[in-house]
Amino acid sequence: MKPTTRSGLWITLSASMALAFQSSVDALLPMAPGASVMVFFARPVLGLGVSALLLPLLERSPTSAGSITALGLAMSGALALVPQSFWSYHWAALAGAFVKVPLLCSLLLGDPAWAGWRLAGAFYGLLLGPMVATLHMPEETLRVLLALFAFSSAVFHFAVANGTLHAERKSDLRSLVLATLPASVALSGVVMAWLLLSVQLALLPLLHALHGHPLADRPLPLGLALLVSSFWLCHAPYPWMKSGPCLPLALCASSAIAALSMRGVAQAISGHDAWQLTGYRLLMQLSLGLLLVTTGTALGRLTSFLPSAFLGCALAAAAFLGEGVGLVLQLLMLPAFGALGTMKALALLPLCYAFLVVRHLPSPEAVDDFHDCDGAE
Question: What confidence tens digit (pLDDT) does each residue in 283-297 have?
Answer without folding.
Answer: 888 888 888 888 888
